[in-house]
Amino acid sequence: MTARKYAIGSDANARAMEAVKGRSLWDDARRRLFRNKAAVTGMIILAVMVLAALIGPYLLPNDYSHLNRDNVWASPGEAGFVLGTDSLGRDLLARLLIGLRVSLAVGVVATAVSLVIGVIWGAVAGYAGGKVDELMMRFVDVLYSLPFIFFVILLMVTFGRSFILIFAAIGAVEWLTMARIVRGQTMSLKQKEFVEAARAAGLGPMAIIARHIVPNLLGPVVVYVTLTIPTVILVESFLSFLGMGVQEPLTSLGTLISQGARDMEIAWWSLVFPAGAMILTLMSFNFIGDGLRDAIDPKDR
Amino acid sequence: MLRFLFRRLLVAIPTLLVVITLAFFLMRAAPGGPFDTDRILPPEVVAAMEARFGLDKPLPVQYVEYLGNVVTGDFGPSMKYQDKTVLDFIKEGFPVSLKIGLSALILAMGVGVTLGSLAALRQNTPADYSVTAIAILGVCVPTFVTAPLLLLLGKAVDWGLPSGGWNDGALPNMVLPVIVLSLPQIAIISRLTRAGMVEVLRSNYVRTARAKGLSEWTIVTRHALRGAILPLVAYLGPACAGVITGSLVIEEIFQLPGLGRSFIIGALQRDYPVVMGVVILYGALIIVLNLVADLLTALLDPRVRLS
């Protein structure tokens, strides 16, 4: 983008501009983001957690589903189990890492689903305007006022506790806000000269949306995505807590917390560590999201 | 005003219809039925039961009949509990959920507005930062984490509060559920109040009040607060939805005989009419509260024009 801008001027002009090397909006945003201590802390914690969830399970001596009948309810540190074991003698650390992996995966994939639906829906509605826009957004309004948690529960009951379905069900509900944000942005982008230029050059509406509108939505969408992931993780855990999440022996943070709440009289660690991991994850995402918002949209501070 | 009300009601009806339709077909698509028990019933018995509840008819016919019944206020009998109707469930469960939810909302309002105003009046002081920290914690620590952690803490320090049960709504039984349910709302309300207050304190009419020589207390409580909590009215609908969602977990953890539990148990047991009844009730409640919130905002804030 910058290269193209400079190419317009003459050679001398370009050399003069080299000397003062302008900073793009994104450079500025990155600078502001990295100055934000909370956001940087969040990023570091999250990076560690993602790494641990991805490769941690392979480094542990105990498998998350392996039953150690001799070490039931081992307390943290006992018999080589760093975080102790559960009622079946399964290593809590291994289970925690797998649970973290599942929760993060659900968060990312469901958010991706909501991203795709929301961006397409919002961009088309905003760009089309008029009756189409009215109809599409009225549909969003109707869905918005549904008691959505009941429908997610009904979906889980209906289609069983399948992994894919959790993604789809949560993603299909979370796209509404995304569509609203994208529509608003699209409506203002539509008025810009570069869209007019594209239209004058003979580009069709779909091509304009894909090539010129969507790339310019990046800022607000990125912010909203980082705030949607923790929401989705929360919903998944909520379902797991009610016994409608992923199936044993697979686990998620919500399932672990639910088991921990049941077992806490005997084994406090089975509740405290998953709960801590959950809080840490949600906080990291929220800090990063808030930091991104301040960085990308400084006028909104 | 009347035209606005009329138009909104016109949207509310299809919304409710969508709620009913989605819930109806989702529930019916679920594998199994209300008469699957551990003990396998003879097929004739199941057939007789299905005929009794009209489940032998084609699904579209059942749907139309159900709609007709709902319009006349008949939510049907429970399919799992003999001689109990859905209205019985609602009569028993809703007061419990309502009492807890309303108490939580009132507590959240009181604490949230106080904390938020305090933070706005002492901007960028330790007091402000602690309120921000509370707000972040409230958002990041979900109810299903707070509740067991509080119970664990209660076991350690023994504050003498029961860890569950309803006991006809006795105060000690209410304390923990209400606190847990209100925490996320306290977080959001204090954040909204702080933002509103910061803006209002800079406004002209507050400066006028200052110029008149009113005391800080009068300025805040009589003038600033009114403007600052206006955004809260619009939050009424989402707050209610949040409390209903939270109550599903709270009623489970604290073993309260509320409507949320009826819904979960009903969904797992395929007690179709009970599930439908709860979804319709809560759906209607949220729709009505959103409408009330919009109307109130317009009534309280002359700058808002209803369109």
List its salient traits.
heterodimer; A: 301 residues; mainly alpha; MetI-like fold; 13 helices; 74% helix; 0% strand; elongated; disordered N terminus; B: 307 residues; 76% helix; transmembrane (chain B); Oligopeptide ABC transporter permease OppB (chain B)
Please sum up the structure shown.
The complex is a heterodimer of chains A (301) and B (307). Chain A is an all-alpha fold and 301 residues long.
What can you see in these coordinates?
The complex is a heterodimer of chains A (301) and B (307). Chain A has helices at 2-8, 11-20, 25-35, 37-59, 92-128, 130-144, 148-159, 163-189, 193-200, 205-213, 218-241, 253-263, 269-296. Chain A has 301 residues and is mainly alpha-helical. Chain A has a single domain (25-300), classed as MetI-like (MetI-like fold). Chain A is elongated, with a radius of gyration of 24 Å. The two termini of chain A are 27 Å apart. Chain B is mostly helical and 307 residues long. Chain B has a domain at 89-258: MetI-like fold. Helix content of chain B is 76%, strand content 0%. In chain B, helix 4 runs parallel beside helix 13, helix 5 (126-140) crosses helix 7 and helix 6 (143-157) packs across helix 7. The A-B interface holds A 138, 141-143, 145-147, 149-151, 153-155, 157-160, 230, 234, 237-238, 241-242, 254, 257-258, 260-261, 264-265, 268, 271-272, 275, 278-279, 282-283, 286 and B 11, 14-15, 18-19, 22-23, 26-27, 29-31, 136, 139-142, 144-145, 147-149, 151-152, 155, 237, 241, 244-245, 248-249, 252-253, 263-264, 267-268, 275, 278-279, 282-283, 286-287, 290.
CATH architecture of the domain at 89-258 in chain B: Orthogonal Bundle
Oligomer: heterodimer
| Mean pLDDT metric of chain A | 80
Structural class of chain B: mainly alpha
CATH architecture of chain A: Orthogonal Bundle
Mass-distribution shape of chain A:
elongated
**Strand element count of chain B:** 0
Per DSSP, the total helix count of chain B is 13
Proportion of beta-strand residues of chain A: under 5%
Order of helices and strands of chain B: HHHHHHHHHHHHH
Structural class of chain A: mainly alpha
Secondary-structure element pattern of chain A, one letter each: HHHHHHHHHHHHH
The percent range for helix content of chain A is over 70%
For CATH, the homologous superfamily of chain A is named as: MetI-like
Biggest pleated sheet of chain B: none
Give the overall average pLDDT of chain B.
85
For the termini of chain A, the CA-CA separation is: 27 Å
CATH class label of the domain at 89-258 in chain B: Mainly Alpha
Low-confidence stretches of chain A: 1-9
